[in-house]
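2024-03-11 09:14:02 DEBUG pipeline.ingest accepted 1 chain
2024-03-11 09:14:02 DEBUG pipeline.ingest length=480
2024-03-11 09:14:03 DEBUG pipeline.predict start
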Amino acid sequence: EPGTERRNAPTEGGCRIFKVPDGNICAENEDSFRPKILSIGPYHHGSSRLERTDHTTMESVKSTCLRSILGSNRHGIMKLAEDARKFYSEDVTMEAEQFAEMLLLDGCFILSALTGMRGTAVENARETAMTSQGTSTSSGTVGHGGVDLALHDALNRQDIVHDLLLVENQIPFFVLEEIRKLAAPTGGTTGQGGTAEQGGTRTTEQGGTTEQGGTAEQGGTTEQRETTESLKQKIAEYVDGVLHYPKAIEIPAICSNDFDHLLHLCHMFFRPSQNPAGHHRIQTMMTNQWHRAMQYREAGVEFRVKGSSTPHSLLDVTFSNGTMKIPHLSIDAKTESIFSNLILFERGYPRARKYINAYVTFMSQLLGTADDVELLVQKGIIDVTGGRYEQASNLFGRLNGLAVFDPYGEDYYLKSMLQSVEAHYLRRRNWWMAWLKHNHLKNPCVIIAALLGFISLLCITFQNFLSILKHFNVFIILEE
């Protein structure tokens, strides 16, 4: 029965939904942690910071999604709200009914937007609309066509992606599971005018929607085959689509694990390909011994973008034979928000591996100035929207201000690589070879002249050797 198999409250040290400490928020990064038009969960519900016109539109879309999926079905929702309240680290002062209604609105919106889910209550929504507005569902206010149209208009903007992946803007994933059960009980049907599971919309990388198939004929019925696993897969596909970074883990592997909310799922895509276990015995340098990209270049380190021929993660930075290979990174309007919230998520969830904190700390040292950013852009490692190299460097400086990690801990997966780079950096021979290469061996004419000079030097040396040898031969003959 719906609502009877829900997840227990998080255990001690488990994944809770928390607020960002005030000390981590300043005027420069506030937009990275605050929703722009969409509130999910209690922390920003009714916030005056939200853009009022857009927020009102989003609340209307939520109501449309709720009517489409559940109609008037609210069975067991109060118990659901009671369990969900335990997942928030801060006190939620909302009344029980208001809190439950908020969870339903937010949950139905996420399910409609990210999975295209439609429930058994379309007819209820149609009747409600006809009663309240005196119009048919063809007006596009409710029903599947109305939901699709409303979602398309609302989701076709980057602000939605930004707002869905904020650490403070989350609801527990089990709420989505319970709404799915309420919308499609075992053996249930879509009801009159319902659509097949694939008849809804799917969200594109840009936050828009595309049609996934047609609807069932009006009056027909379709078996609901949505399961928790398929629900997890659809949501994982959405998150995968909006993360424009190399990933080494496949969606089935992601779905084989439990996650507690969307940002938790997002974090699961960021892990190094190689297990860093066993590296903890290596003594590493402190962060003030790391160097910028231009300094490494002066020491003969070559930078290359990691090729796409082998699956790899954004975190897979390697160094071998004087060459540092770094996965491609696009820096755009979403970069600071995504990384800021992932950093805070790792800090607030004790069981999370601190991979993002380690990666950001390394990159902030590597990209210390605009010249460092420009060098990696020239190597094809980084793309910077608008070519604002100084802003990209400052962005990683702000991220580094949030990052906290143990350079001797097991999560510091880059320690072995940085040991090798530092050993290369300290060899003076590498500095001399790099100096020759960068200052004297770029011009082909200089290379040819140097080669001819070297050959001339060899000839002169050989000639002098013959002269000396001839002199000694004459001296020996005279003595005889």
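2024-03-11 09:14:41 DEBUG pipeline.report The beta strands are 201-203, 209-211, 302-305, 318-320, 323-326, 329-331, 382-384.
2024-03-11 09:14:41 DEBUG pipeline.predict end
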